# Entry
Amino acid sequence: MRAAVVLFPGSNREGDAARALALAGAQVVKVWHEETELPAGTDLVVLPGGFSYGDYLRCGAIAGRAAVMGPVRAHAARGGRVLGICNGFQILCESGLLPGILMRNANLRFICHRQTLRVERADTAFTRRYGKGQVIDVCVAHGEGNYTADAETLNRLEGEGLVAFRYCDERGGITADANRNGSMNSIAGVYSDRLNVLGMMPHPENLIDDLVGGTDGRGLFESLVAT
Amino acid sequence: MKARVTVTLKTGVLDPQGKAIEGALKSLGVDGVASVRQGKVFDIEVDAADRTRAEETLKAACEKLLANTVVENYRVEIAT
# Structure
């Protein structure tokens, strides 16, 4: 599986994303944001976390309109897989590849902590190594992760099963306490209509090694490589 | 041509920053503040032949980048 990790000015998690992908068995190349095409044979595009363009204007707004997003959009339109993590999720929303927007956290604080997530479905290219309803332990680190969409969009996401992950407590309960950024419906990640684009605020790439606290993030990368 | 673009949150969109500012004003003893909504202002110098062209340029700028119309409205004013 060939993965292209896109690097924008201000991305800072591309190394971790690449490491997680490589560990799962992917061939990884990094792609600069000014590129107007993706490497031949790219199966997966990853937009990593960070602070592209210093979060100027709105998080992900400028990166979402970068040259490389043209071929990324074409890749997604062909059914190619795209994963956006944290700032990558913000970029996907700003580029229109995913609906909604990530607003300032409801408590106005940058949050950085371990977070349990509930896997809402395990039949996608991103989650087949997990079980439906499984609770996984990952990390969050963001100031703008408050998922917001209009009522119609939210209904569609829920009705069509496009919510990928929700913030939950250790037992999988969807509670206000577990939803620390204030996201609508505790949404931590969403899929595109065809389930080939996933954006998520938490960082599965942080939890791929017991040495640093856990391996629950591995399943996502292993799912992608296995598909 | 000088222009000003104002981007504001749509009605009903939660604005935690505005709320925090509102709270701070109250705690500073600034009386009479009922509510605060935070937005953005862009002062733009437009290189256009006439007003209509300038408006088109600014509208394109707003739609393509300056505003996220999922949650924001924009207003364009061109200085006379």
Observations:
- Residues 2-226 of chain A form a domain with the Rossmann fold fold (CATH 3.40.50.880).
- DSSP finds five helices and eleven strands in chain A.
